[in-house]
Design brief:
binds adenosine-5'-diphosphate; globular; 6-stranded mixed beta sheet; Four Helix Bundle (Hemerythrin (Met), subunit A); binds magnesium ion; Creatine Kinase, Chain A, domain 2; 9-stranded mixed beta sheet; 53% helix
C-alpha cells in the first residue's frame, strides 16, 4: 500500500489535470446582488423605513420598534426572493473567527401549515447560546448572558441560503464581548474629533469616517497534501520540515504568471466576493512560492473590517471546491516569507476630501499637514499600543524575521515630507509675520502637492509608512481581525486630535490668529514626535542595534506586548475616549493571553505527537535497514574491507540514535514544562512560561526531525515535504 504521503502526491497530480474554469461574468451585473444595499432597500422597504436606516447609517440615529418591523419585513421579502431559508445574527467573537447560528424563517401554524416570519425584535436583538465564547471572566463576574444586536451601519447579506445580519456581541451588563463593539465606538469618537478639527478649514464638514483598505496575503496548498500534515491541519503552520533546496531565492514567484489552477480559484472567489459587494480589485503572486495576495478597494472602516472577516471565510469555502486549503497563518513555512495584512488607513470627510491627501491650495494643504502631523504624534505617543494591537502567536514569527516589518514600531514619511516637517519645526514660537506666512505658503505648504506627485520614495520595510495619501500599517498579521489595529489607530487619533484642538483653541482665545495657532501647535507636535520617524531599512540588523540606542522598544513576544493594553496610560486612553472601560480591556488582555498560551500548547502537543509517532518510528525503520545492510556486509566481506566500506553507515546508525534520543529527551522535558505551567493560576504567568520555556523546545525538536528528514530514505518519509507543499 502506498504511504499517505505518496497517495496525497498522486491525488494532487490527478487534480491538477481535472481543474475547471469558472463561467464568465460581468462584474457590474452581479456586484452586490447578495447584499441588502440601498437599491434593495428602496425596492423592498417603505420610504419611511429606508430613510430611517439611512439616518442610522449616516448619523447613528436610533431605529424605533415600528420601523424595525418594517425593515425586518423588507429584509425577509428580499431574502425569500433570493432563495434564502434561514437568517443569522453574524458576529465576530474574540475567538478570531466569525460566528453564526442559523434560524429558519418559517414557522409552523396551528392549522398544520407554515408561514415565513421575521420581525423587528428578531432583527434587532438575539441571545445566542454563546456561553462557550471567550469572555475573559466578564460574564462569570457579572453572571450575565450575552446578546447580539443589529449594526445597521453594515448591510445584511446572503451567504449560501442564509441571510446574515452583522451584529455586535455584548454582555447584558453592556461590556463588549466582540471585536466590532469597540471598533464602532472608536469610529464614533474619531468622527467627532476629526470633524471638529476639519471644521477649522471647512465649516461644511459634518462627518468624518475612517477608511480602511486591507491587503490579504495567503498561501494555497492542495487539500490532499494538507490532510497528510497533522501540523498544518491542527495549528495552521508546519512545525517541522526541512527547507526545500529551492525556495524564494530566485524571486521567480513574485508577480509571476498565476498558475491556471490558482487563477480559477481566484476567479470564482472574486465572483462570490462581487456578489457580496466586496470590491476586490487586485490579485497577484507574492514573494514565497504558493503565496498570493488579494486586495479590495478601500471602504469605510467598519464595512471594510466586516468584508475582511467575510473574505477569509469565503476564501476557505471557495477553495474547497478547487481542492485547495487557504493558509492565513502568519508563518506557515519556515525559511520563506510569512503573510501579513497591510492596513491602509485614512480619514475622509462627508464633503469628499481625503484628509491625508495633499490638496491644491495652501489651505487644503494646511489641513493635510494638520492630520498628517497629528497621526505621527498619535503613533509616537502610543507606539506601544499599536504593537499590542498586532500581537499574536502567529505574528511573533513574522515581526523581526528579516522579511516582515520589525517588532519595533516606527514611521516612514519619505524625504520630501521630512524636509517639510523640518522646515516647519524651525518656525519660531508665537504669531507669524506676513513675510513668514508668504514664505511658508509658497515654499513649504504650497509645494506639497508637487513634491508628492513625484515622490517615488517607497519604503517597504517600515511597519507604518506614509504612501502618498494614506498610512499603511504593515505589521498586521494575515490571520488578524483588522478591528483590533483599527480600534487602536482610530482611538489614538481621536485622542490626539482632541488634545490638538484644545491647544489651538487655547492660543486662539489668547488672541492668536487661527492659522498661526495651528502652525504653532503643529510645530510642537513635529518636535515632540520626531523620534518615531525612521527612514532607513527596517529589516537590517543595524536598525535593531540603533533603535535600541534611540530608545525604541523592540518587543518580540506576545505576552510582553499585550501588557501595554493594561498600562495605566492605555486604560485611561480607552476609558476617556469611551472605547472600552477597564473591565473590558482587562478581559480582552486575559483572553489574548489565554489564546496565545493555548496556541503554543497545541503546537507543543502536535509536535510531540508527530515527532513520537511519525519521525522516530520512521527513523528506526531506516536505521534497521542500515543495520541489516551492515550485518550483510560483515558476512560477505573480510574484516579490513568491511571496516572501510561500512564506516559511513555505522556513523549514520549512530547519528540516528543520537537524534532520536535528543528528540525523546526534549519531548519529555517539554511535557514536564507544560505540566508545570498549566498549574499556574494567572493567565499572564502561564503565557510567559509557555513563551520562554515551552516554545524553545519546538525549535530544538524540529531541528533534529529536519536533520532526520535529510537522512532517512525518501520512500519511508511519511509527511509531505516542503518541496511538495510549497510547489503544490
Ligand atoms: P501597495 O501597498 O501594494 O503598493 P497601493 O499603494 O496601490 O498598494 O494601495 C494599497 C491599498 O491602499 C489598496 O487596497 C487601496 O484600497 C488602499 N487605499 C488607497 N487609498 C486609501 C485611502 N484613502 N484609505 C484607505 N485605504 C486606501
Ligand atoms: Mg501594501
Amino acid at each position: 500500500m502506498p504511504s499517505i504521503r505518496f497517495s496525497a502526491l498522486q491525488a494532487n497530480t490527478n487534480r491538477k489535470a481535472v481543474e475547471y474554469e469558472p463561467e464568465n461574468f460581468v462584474v457590474s451585473q452581479i456586484f452586490g446582488e447578495n447584499v441588502f444595499n440601498k437599491k434593495a432597500m428602496r425596492e423592498f422597504m417603505s420610504a419611511e423605513a429606508y430613510n430611517s436606516v439611512l439616518a442610522a447609517m449616516d448619523k447613528g440615529s436610533k431605529i424605533g420598534r415600528d420601523i424595525a418591523d418594517q425593515v425586518a419585513s423588507g429584509m425577509k421579502s428580499w431574502s425569500l426572493s433570493k432563495g434564502a431559508t434561514h437568517y443569522t445574527h453574524w458576529f465576530q467573537p474574540l475567538t478570531g473567527a466569525t460566528a453564526e447560528k442559523h434560524d429558519s424563517f418559517f414557522q409552523p401554524t396551528p392549522g398544520g401549515e407554515a408561514i415565513e416570519k421575521f420581525t423587528g425584535s428578531l432583527l434587532v436583538q438575539q441571545e445566542p447560546d454563546a456561553s462557550s465564547f471567550p469572555n475573559g471572566g466578564i460574564r462569570n463576574t457579572f453572571e450575565a448572558r450575552g446578546y447580539t444586536a443589529w449594526d445597521p451601519t453594515s448591510p445584511a447579506f446572503i451567504m449560501g441560503r442564509t441571510l446574515c445580519i452583522p451584529t455586535v456581541f455584548v454582555a447584558y451588563t453592556g461590556e463588549a464581548l466582540d471585536f466590532k463593539t469597540p471598533l464602532l465606538r472608536a469610529l464614533q469618537v474619531v468622527d467627532q474629533e476629526a470633524t471638529a478639527v476639519a471644521q477649522y478649514f471647512d465649516k461644511n464638514v459634518k462627518k468624518v469616517h475612517a477608511t480602511l483598505g486591507w491587503e490579504q496575503e495567503y498561501f494555497l496548498v492542495d487539500t490532499a497534501l494538507y490532510e497528510a500534515r497533522p501540523d498544518l491541519k491542527l495549528t495552521g503552520r508546519t512545525l517541522l520540515g526541512h527547507s526545500a533546496a529551492k525556495g524564494q531565492q530566485l524571486d521567480d514567484h513574485y508577480f509571476g504568471s498565476i498558475p491556471d489552477r490558482v487563477r480559477f480559484f481566484m476567479r470564482e472567489f472574486e465572483y462570490e466576493s462581487y456578489r457580496l459587494g466586496i470590491p476586490v480589485t487586485t490579485r497577484h503572486n507574492e514573494v514565497a512560492p504558493s503565496q498570493f495576495e488579494m486586495a479590495p478597494m478601500f471602504e469605510e472602516a467598519n464595512i471594510s473590517v466586516d468584508h475582511n472577516s467575510l473574505v477569509m471565510d469565503l476564501m476557505d469555502k471557495v477553495a474547497r471546491r478547487h481542492n485547495f486549503k487557504v493558509l492565513c497563518h502568519e508563518k506557515p513555512y519556515a525559511g520563506v516569507n510569512g503573510s501579513g495584512k497591510h492596513n491602509n488607513w485614512s480619514l475622509a470627510t462627508d464633503t469628499g476630501i481625503n484628509l491625508l491627501s495633499p490638496g491644491k491650495t495652501p489651505k487644503t494643504n494646511l489641513q493635510f499637514l494638520t492630520f498628517f502631523v497629528n497621526t505621527l504624534k498619535a503613533v509616537h505617543d502610543h507606539a506601544d499600543l499599536l504593537r499590542a494591537a498586532i500581537a499574536s502567536a502567529g505574528n511573533d514569527h513574522r515581526l523581526g524575521a528579516n522579511e516582515a516589518p520589525p517588532a519595533i514600531i516606527s514611521a516612514f514619511i519619505g524625504s520630501q515630507l521630512t524636509e517639510t516637517l523640518n522646515a516647519l519645526e524651525k518656525l519660531e514660537k508665537g504669531s507669524l509675520s506676513p513675510e513668514q506666512k508668504t514664505e511658508l505658503k509658497l515654499n513649504v505648504v504650497g509645494k506639497i502637492p508637487e513634491i508628492l506627485l513625484d515622490n517615488t520614495d517607497r519604503n517597504r520595510t517600515s511597519p507604518f509608512a506614509f504612501t502618498g495619501n494614506k498610512f499603511e500599517f504593515r505589521a498586521v498579521g494575515s490571520s488578524a481581525n483588522c478591528a483590533q489595529p483599527m480600534t487602536v489607530m482610530n482611538t489614538i487619533m481621536a485622542n490626539q486630535l482632541r488634545a490638538f484642538r484644545k491647544e489651538v483653541d487655547g492660543l486662539i482665545e489668547g488672541g492668536m490668529k487661527k492659522d498661526d495657532a495651528i502652525f504653532n501647535v503643529l510645530r510642537d507636535c513635529i518636535e515632540e514626535s520626531k523620534s518615531i520617524r525612521f527612514e532607513g531599512d527596517g529589516y537590517s540588523d543595524d536598525w535593531v542595534t540603533a533603535a535600541e540606542k534611540l530608545g525604541f522598544k523592540n518587543v518580540k513576544s506576545t505576552p510582553q506586548a499585550l501588557d501595554f493594553y493594561i498600562s495605566e496610560k492605555a486604560l485611561s486612553l480607552f476609558e476617556d475616549n469611551g472605547v472600552m472601560n477597564r473591565v473590558e480591556v482587562a478581559a480582552r488582555h486575559e483572553i489574548l493571553l489565554e489564546e496565545y498560551q493555548k496556541k503554543i500548547q497545541i503546537e507543543s502537543r502536535v509536535l510531540g505527537d508527530i515527532a513520537g509517532n511519525h519521525v522516530v518510528p520512521t527513523a528506526i525503520t531506516y536505521q534497521n535497514r542500515l543495520i541489516e545492510n551492515v550485518r550483510g556486509l560483515k558476512e560477505v566481506l573480510d574484516q579490513k574491507k568491511f571496516e572501510k566500506v561500512a564506516k559511513e553507515q555505522l556513523q549514520m546508525i549512530e547519528e540516528i540514535s543520537e537524534r532520536i534520543s535528543s528528540i525523546i529527551g526534549d519531548k519529555e522535558a517539554m511535557i514536564a514544562a507544560r505540566k508545570k505551567f498549566n498549574k499556574l493560576a494567572l493567565a499572564k504567568d502561564k503565557a510567559v512560561g509557555y513563551c520562554d520555556v515551552v516554545f524553545p523546545y519546538l525549535d530544538k525538536i524540529r531541528y533534529q526531525c529536519d536533520k532526520l528528514e535529510l537522512l532517512v530514505d525518501d520512500e519511508l518519509w511519511p509527511l509531505p515535504k516542503y518541496r511538495e507543499l510549497i510547489f503544490a
